[in-house]
Design brief:
- The structure is a homodimer.
- The relative contact order of chain A is 0.15.
- Chain A is α/β, with parallel strands linked by helices.
- In chain A, strand 5, helix 4 and strand 6 form a beta-alpha-beta unit.
- The radius of gyration of chain A is 16 Å and the shape is globular.
- In chain A, helix 2 runs parallel beside helix 3.
- The first copy, chain A, has 7 helices and 7 strands.
- The longest helix of chain A has 22 residues.
- A 7-stranded parallel sheet of chain A has the order 3-2-1-4-5-6-7, with helices on both faces.
- Helix content of chain A is 43%, strand content 14%.
- At the A-B interface, helix 3 and helix 4 of A face helix 3 and helix 4 of B.
Amino acid sequence: MRVIVIGATGTIGQALVKTLSVHHDVVKVGHKDGGFHVDIASVDSIKTLYDSVGSFDAVVCAAGLAKFGRFEELKEADYLLGLTNKLMGQVNLVRIGRQYLKDKGCFTLTSGILSQEPMKGSASISMVNAGLDGFVRAAALELAPHLRINAVSPPWVKETMEAMGMESSSGMPAEKVALAYLNAVEGTRTGQILDPRSLIKN
Amino acid sequence: MRVIVIGATGTIGQALVKTLSVHHDVVKVGHKDGGFHVDIASVDSIKTLYDSVGSFDAVVCAAGLAKFGRFEELKEADYLLGLTNKLMGQVNLVRIGRQYLKDKGCFTLTSGILSQEPMKGSASISMVNAGLDGFVRAAALELAPHLRINAVSPPWVKETMEAMGMESSSGMPAEKVALAYLNAVEGTRTGQILDPRSLIKN
């Protein structure tokens, strides 16, 4: 399959490219780096990407900004960042991409477990991730039977925790998280929110 | 308690006012009608409401616009309507209202079961409702122990189905839905998404 990986230069994205490349032709898309670029917050940028990339069988997105912060300090603009970037960015990748994706193709988006397992500071991220989960469950009903859509809802990633100076023993290595995306791309599921902890034995 | 009901003139809102008025002092707030007005999509309008309404113990919101429509016909603006009105409108009622609400007060917002039980046409509404659920679960952690927050996630309301010309025998009467809000206001829960079907025997 020819698979577009958006966010290919990120922590999960790099692991995704490595994992998917074993059996698939991977098109790496970065925000500024990589062979192709996209700003998922821009509909025009998304259209330009799809117009330029040629035909493809799958879109995997591991990109999207959202703001973590104390509830009393989160401003309206902080919520809107997540809504316009991580949430509507991925919604628009699907809305627009369905006209380009090959029949029987699939979208695999990125949510996060804060949707169901919030913590202090996650109000805007939990909102965005849960919204994405709701979108995926609903959109799957109308994309079927031609296209599939799923989200991977990663736990804290070990490499991210290390980069943030957090104690990382509870984190999942990015290469393990990537297997959930592989499962979504190669399998037959649709409308599912995949928790890598449930799919993969550490 | 003094309870502000936003969306007091709507189908659920009217039932809410009737139910809450038995034991509480209800302040009715409409979009254009009622003693007080608010446009929840406007931060300024929300501030004006809170500044003018006096002190209060609870905010109940049964207002919020979102667009139902076929996936291939939903435009970006249709998604943004739900995000800016039903979702961020209610988030802003909490963000701003926490500075006005009395200690031990509570917010009760309105989601909807399409968050978890989507149907064809619900992509944007499922996204908005699920996002609200995620926000409520997370915000509760930081509003505690001073304030509570919950969402009621109503099923299809009988009167709404009748107004839309749908077969309504599966719908729940608004007066039954209102009991879930009463439970949220009078009880001790926080961070919960209340399904009136689970709480109330028809």
